[in-house]
Amino acid sequence: MSFRAALIQQTLDKGRIQEHQAEMVDLEDHFLDDSGGDAPVDIAVHYSGINYKDGLALAGKPGVARTSPLIPGIDLVGEVTASADPAFTRGDEVVLTGGGIGESAHGGLAQRARVSGQHLVKLPAGLTARQAAAIGTAGFTAMLSVLALQRGGVRPEAGAVVVTGSAGGVGSVAIALLAKLGYQVSAVTGRADTQGEYLRRLGASDLLDRAEFAEPGAPLQKRRWAGGVDSAGSATLANILSQTEDGGTVTSCGLAQGHDLPTTVMPFILRGVTLAGINSVTAPQALREEAWRRLATDLPLELLDEMTQEIALDGVFEQAEQILAGQVRGRTVVNLGADLERLRSRSGAAPGWGSVCGVSHPRFSR
Ligand SMILES: NC(=O)c1ccc[n+]([C@@H]2O[C@H](COP(=O)([O-])OP(=O)(O)OC[C@H]3O[C@@H](n4cnc5c(N)ncnc54)[C@H](OP(=O)(O)O)[C@@H]3O)[C@@H](O)[C@H]2O)c1
Fold it and tell me: What is the predicted pLDDT for the residue at 239?
């Protein structure tokens, strides 16, 4: 039996990518035999997604794909077809974001996956498989950011919360969540002309040009924000920290502008500002469960649908180019069109080793 997958093959020298090829292939089922650790869970993947990280991996940019060959895709949603982990049984609908898939272990851009149950979450009541994939790593990260603001004591009545990277995946979900929870949201974007209406529909009350935040500013600036959700890093994050009210919290999850942080200690020691780091990949299981429960109740699903576009597996290369060029709005789900009956009927079949076959549509070669 074979299944369709995106596959990245690279040669690495001291961690540097020397050669890179990403293509669509048919793989034998037993390609996944070594995956999933000691108690693997087999999944018929229904949906995956394209995050910024997936764009980097597919395009052969460093820092994401850490092994070769690798099925990319840091998200997957599907149905368990077999499980050596007692926490899961055949027929469970599950979602996995991060946990190393699509980076150091085979990921979700394939019709089948075999993963560790360590970071797997049962699909929360109230969400369909497609909606969970639409949330994906970006939406999960937005929820972790909102939880961090709440833990930091940032309440809606304290003042405006600023969100950067607004038209992107993390930003879009963060705006929708914060607005639903009663926060006044200021959206920083480079695309107010084309995405302004969209951002207002998500719940942004103000739109700010990201160019205003792009250059390093004074260590302490006029107080503007009770809190912030930042996916840009660099001078943008530094300026937001310098504009945050006493006792405010700003979360940092991304580096869309850059990985540097040209700031001083002044916002921290003179205004008691907290900078809260967000890492969705290694989030512990209890926090994962809490975040998914909250997403199912706090995220307006009609807005999630509005921010979501759907593509087929063959469209992932083009989508990777677009997300790296900053042309994608909101979230992209990948419909794997898994042939469930075929996968169910093969459960329990003797495993064996196989090889890559049926290569087509080679992309991103160098
Ligand atoms: N820490 C974690 O666990 C975690 C999880 C998910 C994502 N991330 C990171 O968070 C970031 C956002 O992820 P995403 O999935 O939302 O990506 P995305 O969909 O590509 O969105 C990124 C957004 O950032 C804005 N942007 C682009 N270039 C910028 C620049 N030079 N300066 C300021 N803003 C810029 C754009 O928004 P506008 O067009 O509105 O300006 C863009 O839509 C990425 O760096 C990603 O790797 C981290």
Answer: 98
